[in-house]
Amino acid sequence: MKKNYFSNKMISKSDSKLKEIISSDSFVEEAKQAAAWELDERKIGHNYKLQPPKQISNNLFKNYDFRSTESKGWRKYHENSLLFFGLTCIACAIYFIAPTIFTFKKSLIQVEGRLKSADILIEEVSSFNKFGYKAKSRRATLYFSLTGINKRFELMENIGKDYRHEKFSSIKNRLRSSKQITVWIKKKEKKSGKPKVFQIDIDNTTILTFNEVKTERNGIFIFLLILGLSSTVFVLWRKYPDKFERIIN
Q: Nearest Cα to 87, choosing from 242, 201, 236?
C-alpha cells in the first residue's frame, strides 16, 4: 500500500469522510491522495485523480531586476564617484607633473646674473590623508632673485617633521658666495615672474642638475596614472561589459 504523511490519519476515517476529503478544497493534495489510497485499499470507488505539480514559469522572473531602486542608485553613485576620482588622478598627472617630466633641455634658456637676495622659508602645511585625518608637515621653500632681473626663482619641497632642509641650505650658501649665477628655465616662461627652475649653475659649476629636477616626481606621476587609468577602465567595464568583451575578443 502506498503511503505518505497523512496515510495513518486516514485509517480511522469513515468511507464518507474520506470521500468528503477528496472533494473538499480545504485539504492539501497530499491529504486527498492519502484518502484515495485508503479507499483503494478498501475497494471503494472514487473520482480522485492525482494532480500534476504546478510549474513556475521562467518568464515570471526573466525580465525582473531584483536589485532595489536604492541599490541601483547607490551603485550608480559609487561608479560615478570612482570615475570622477580616476579622471581627476589622470588630469593631475598630466597637468601638474607631465609638463616637467616631458621637458627637454633644448626647450630651456639661460638667465644669468649676480645674486640680489636668497633665503629659505619653513612653514607648516596641512592636508587630509585617505582616512580623513588632518596631517601636518613642514614645507621648505628656497627663493632667490638676481640683480636686474624681475623674477623670483623658487625651489620647494616637503620636509615632513624636520626643521631644516640641508640641500636647500647648501644651495643658499653657495648662492650667497657666488660671483655668477645661471638659472635654466623654459623659453615659454621667459616673461613669467615665477618660472619653473630646471637647473642652477654657480660659477660654472652645476649644483642642481636638469635630470634631478625632471625625474623628481616620476614615481608620483606613474602612481597617479596607474590609479587613474585602472579606476576609469574598471567603471567603464562595469557600464559597458559587452563593448569591452568585443574589444578583447
A: 236
